[in-house]
Write a structure and sequence with these properties.
There is one protein chain. By secondary structure, the chain is of the alpha/beta class. It folds into 2 domains: about 200 residues, 2-enoyl-CoA Hydratase, Chain A, domain 1, CATH 3.90.226; about 45 residues, Lyase 2-enoyl-coa Hydratase, Chain  A, domain 2, CATH 1.10.12. Strands 1-2-3-5-7-10 form a 6-stranded mixed beta sheet, sandwiched between helices. Strand 2, helix 1 and strand 3 form a beta-alpha-beta unit. Helix 10 packs antiparallel against helix 11. It is globular and about 60 Å long.
Length: about 270
């Protein structure tokens, strides 16, 4: 029987950890408790050496409808996670975003979003922070903040323009238009589109391949890319050189170099 916990974590034998947003009756809307448990799951999978790739999906027919709009309508404080003052509310919202979107973006292992249905609002920020996004044919992707009179959070205004360009991002924020899976792929928002009943199996197979890679090198690749977004070429060259020195000491570098020299497939171990 499926748990009623808002976050489910399945650590598989192939090195993939599947995190499921589990409020299907509310389209996996993001409550404060869901976000707290998601942050805990991200921290745990980052530290667990047996986990070499993370997949995130939603239970039921949605990835996530973003913030819980019903709670927002019932109580203004729901949108601010209980903050009594504007300053306190801003701090709580920022921490919620940092411990979820920020944790995905800086996660030391590959993180893949399996978008099984609608993803809008703050949940879009979670998906955009992932290293790759795979979608089902029934996926619908949008910002939707305009529909509830909000300006955007969870990193959406940072991440979306970097994926689709500033002009298209502005349009998507201002119109609130929902993109179907094919349109999202054309824009580069998703890598591949699968039939609804094969997304999970295809997505987990994709993640299993990543889990067989040089995990520590993957983490440093991500760190280099994140660093390069905000620094000059010269600064990035220096940062790359430092990480390359660390990677050269890893078992996986020795394994990869030896396998290459012997014309064999490497057996990376994530160390």
């Amino acid at each position: 029987m499926m748990s009623d916990a808002p976050i489910l974590v399945d650590k598989r034998d192939d090195g993939v950890a599947l995190i499921t947003l589990n409020r299907p009756d509310r389209l996996n809307a993001m409550s404060a408790e869901l976000l707290r448990q998601l942050a805990d799951a991200l921290t745990d999978t980052a530290a667990d050496e047996a986990v070499r790739c993370v997949a995130i999906t939603g239970a039921g027919r949605a990835f996530s409808a973003g913030g819980d709009v019903k709670d927002m309508a019932d109580d203004r404080r729901a949108v601010t996670f209980g903050g009594e003052t504007d300053e306190e509310a801003s701090g709580l919202l920022a921490r919620a975003a940092q411990t979820t979107t920020g944790a995905i973006y800086a996660h030391p292992k590959p993180v893949v979003a399996l978008i099984n249905g609608v993803v809008v609002g703050g949940a879009l920020g979670l998906a955009l922070a992932c290293d790759a996004r795979l979608a089902s044919e029934r996926a619908r992707i949008g910002t939707a903040f305009r529909n509830v009179g909000l300006s955007g959070d969870f990193g959406t205004t940072y991440l979306l323009p970097r994926l689709v360009g500033w002009g298209r991002a502005r349009e998507l924020f201002l119109t609130g238009d929902l993109l179907d899976a094919a349109s999202a792929r054309e824009l580069g928002l998703v890598t591949a589109v699968y039939a609804e009943d094969t997304l999970l199996s295809e997505g987990l197979a994709y993640c299993a391949q990543l889990a067989q890679g040089p995990t520590k090198a993957f983490g440093r690749m991500k760190e280099n890319l994140n660093f390069g977004e905000h620094h000059s070429l010269q600064q990035t060259l220096a940062h790359e050189a430092l990480n390359q020195r660390f990677s050269a000491l890893d078992f996986d570098h020795h394994e990869g170099a030896t396998a290459f020299a012997n014309k064999q497939q490497p057996a990376f171990q994530g160390r």
